[in-house]
Amino acid sequence: MNFGFSDEQELLRRQARDLLDRECPTARVRQLMEDELGHDPRMYARIAELGWTAIPFAEAHGGLGLGLVDLTVVLEEMGRHLLPSPFQSTVGLAGMTVAASGDAAQAARLLPSIVNGSAHATVALVEETGRWDAGGVRMAARRSGDAWLLQGEKLFVPYAQVATWMIVAARTADDPADGLTLLVVDTTAPGVAVRPLRSMDATRRMAAVGFDGVEVPGDAVLGEPGRGWATLRRGLDRAMVCLAGELTGTAQRVLEMSVDYAKVRQQFGRPIGAYQAVSHRCADMLVMTESARSLAYHAAWALDNDVPEASLAAAMAKAYASDAARTVASHGLQVHGGIGFTWEHDIHLYLKRAKWGEATLGDASHHRERVAQLLEL
Amino acid sequence: MDFSLSPEETRFRDEVRDWLRDNLDDRIREHVTGDDIEQRRAWQRRVHEAGFAGVSWPRELGGQGGTLMQEVIVNQEMAAARAPDLVNIIGLYMAGPTILAHGTLLRADEIWCQGFSEPNSGSDLASLRTRAAIDGDDFVVSGQKVWTSFAHVARWCILLTRTDASETAHAGLTYLIVDMHSPGIEVRPLRQITGDAEFNEMYFTDVRVPRANLLGEVGGGWRVAMTTLMHERATLGVGLQVRARIALDALRALARETVVDGVPRSADPLVRQQIAQLSIEVEAMRLNGLRGLTKVLHGEQPGPEGSVNKLMWSELNQRIAETALDLLGPYATLAEGDERAPLGGRWAHGYLRSRANSIEGGTSEVLRNILAERVLGLPRSR
User: Fold this and answer.
1) For residue A250, with 0-12 CB atoms within 10 Å meaning exposed, 13-18 middle and 19 or more buried, which class applies?
2) What is the pLDDT of residues B265-284, one digit of tens each?
3) Structural domains of chain A, with CATH
């Protein structure tokens, strides 16, 4: 039994912290919030050069053959720095979905360009209902000879604006539990229209993606046709853990900012951190942040080792992190008082990231219901 | 990072499991509880004979010379099998590790109690006034202690006293091991809101304690007491998590088995959300505990972050009991002894007992102070 990090993982964390401290202060984050692309391609190239895009992928695809635990270490640091980047949606969501699909041909075709940083990718799942499950998918893929025809619209697709390709979940059978087929669609294919959504968290870009008679070649199926949800579930579990790790980093930074502020801000002749109404709030923020961290890394380990309760661990991690990051960010704003409500102060950036992360990939209520099911309640 | 057990640990776990399967039954689960100290003592004796009490203690002290991890495995397996709590929990997890760390002998199969709190010294423990005067080769102890679990059956007491009345607070405190058979000790049971009397008041009148029973140095008692409290919060933390899991398992069963108009309460979306949230937090507590344990296994002393466990456990245990009573509707208000009381009134009793969780062993307010001041480095509130 060992719930600690290896020397290599500690080194990776230090490397990530150093780079992002230097290259991604909040002043830079604010610039990128106004940027049309929403991220810095040179930064992404640097990240790929350092091998972070290669972390969880097999050596056969050019990857480092490490695990989700290692990837979560990097993502926690990215969450801490609010790095505006398609890294999570490319590596943690689309890349991990391909890697976990068991589809060797697609993995060989798609993963090398993710690993070397030349491609961004994403997953288009959610529709008008806002549901992150199989039942929410109504958009059908119809057979047309060897090809599939797509007609409909997907929402909340992360970084579709910069994606080279996306995994589209489409309905091919009338089965509320699954009946989905995953199609790998080129974002430049005729009939695909990417319309940016205006995100509350300007450090995270999302889009509505329209499909108007898009023709997808028959060999673009990921995994088994009609069993798409089972395949995507494996990818989503991994992406949820990545996001839980990111949210942990975000919460950690808010905790540190709030504690630092509570030590120096004086009212009634004492630092406000000497008042228990403030210090106990900070203690609660600590408990929530540490618990989110424990659940995220345990889930990462569970998925890496394919233990039977891995899916349960992932649902727990995402449910908890969703609430924890939002609550910690709200507490943090309260500790900062009036200054925390200003655009100029950074705390709102973390609150908005926390809100985005809370709702993305299924919110706490969604995953608590899954926890109840997985516990056979 | 590796949450699995090594092959040797797996073998040891199976040994514990086999023993529990052969030696534990529902009769023991039901009868070896609460006030029945003789039954509980007999159970602990059997556990000790099997080699599962004081697992990590040195052999020459009656232990097994095992690893801390084996100790954790025993805790987990005992809890998972719903085995009765050991009656000597204070000796094993609080007194024991402190005394080992400070080097004095003891036997693993005698019951211990902990004389820290006083009527006027609760959260502000360092203000305590029980006096220990040095007289030749003895300390002479006079004063009053309160909330002392097991005092009426204990052979030994770890007692925090004041040797220097001119010093205030932390300085001037001295830590003694007191033979509860010594003349001048009076123990009076205190009745709790549950109706049980698990703990006591202790009166010390000129009780002579040999100098050999001094732990640490005269005036150095606070540091020794902190070792005890950190161990209570870190080592016992692992056990607390398992107790929370048992309570949670029982809550899940209650939700499935409580059927209103043909519908189990577990089908109610709100109930499902509440129980799922509790399950997640109990798991978070387990994992936080394992992070703390990892540090201890690497030879570090448990630190103030162990307070997280106690804080989480007490509030979780209370919420589990509250959720259970919510499920039962008006039946929740029936006391033990009423024939309509669900499960013999066990949940109503558990609910009342859980009110003490956020007070005993450090109030939630004190634990938040510790986290704020000693982990986060915020200024002292006093």
Assistant:
1) buried
2) 999 999 999 999 999 999 99
3) 7-120 (1.10.540.10), 122-226 (2.40.110.10), 229-374 (1.20.140.10)
CATH 1.10.10.10 at B223-375, yes or no: no
- Shortest CA gap A226–chain B (Å): 30
For chain B, the domains span 7-87, 112-219, 223-375
pLDDT per residue as tens digits for the range B128-186: 999 999 999 999 999 999 999 889 888 889 999 999 887 767 889 999 999 999 999 99
Q: What is the pLDDT of residues B88-120, one digit of tens each?
A: 766 666 666 666 554 443 444 577 888 999 999
Residue of B nearest to A316 (CA): B280
Which residue, chain included where needed, has tokens 């990718």?
A: A121
Contacts with A, B 33-92, CB within 8 Å: 69, 72
- pLDDT tens digits, one per residue of A24-57: 999 999 999 999 999 999 999 999 999 999 999 9
Q: Report percent pLDDT > 90 for chain B.
A: 52
CB atoms closer than 10 angstroms to residue B217: 13
What ipTM does this complex have? 0.97
Minimal Cα distance from B291: which residue of A? A3
Asked about B232 being catalytic, the answer comes back as yes
CB contact under 8 A, B284 and A294: yes
Angle B329-B331-B335 from CA coordinates, rounded to 5°: 135
- B244 CB neighbours in chain A (<8 A) are none
Residue B6 pLDDT > 70, yes or no?
Answer: yes
Tell me the nearest-neighbour CA distance from B263 into chain A, angstroms: 13
Inform me whether the C-beta atom of residue A71 falls under 8 Å from chain B C-beta atoms: no
d(CA A211, CA A160): 13
Cα–Cα distance, B43 to B96 (Å, whole number): 19
Q: With respect to CATH, is domain B112-219 assigned 2.40.110.10? A: yes
Six token digits for residue A200: 């509350």
3-state DSSP of B182-251 = CCCEEEEEECCCCCCCCEEEEEEEEEEEEHHHEECCCCEHHHHHHHHHHHHHHHHHHHHHHHHHHHHHHH
What residue ranges of chain A have pLDDT lower than 50? none
Given the residues B71, B232, B281, B305, the one annotated as active site: B232
The token pair at B124 is 């502000």
Q: β-pairing, A221-222 with A266-267?
A: unpaired
In A, which residues are within 8 Å of B284 by CB distance?
A: 291-292, 294-295, 316, 320
Residues with Cβ within 8 Å of A18's Cβ and at least 6 positions away in sequence, in order, are none
For chains A and B, CB pairs below 8 A equal: 153
CATH code 1.10.540.10 for B7-87: yes
Which residue type occupies A303?
A: L
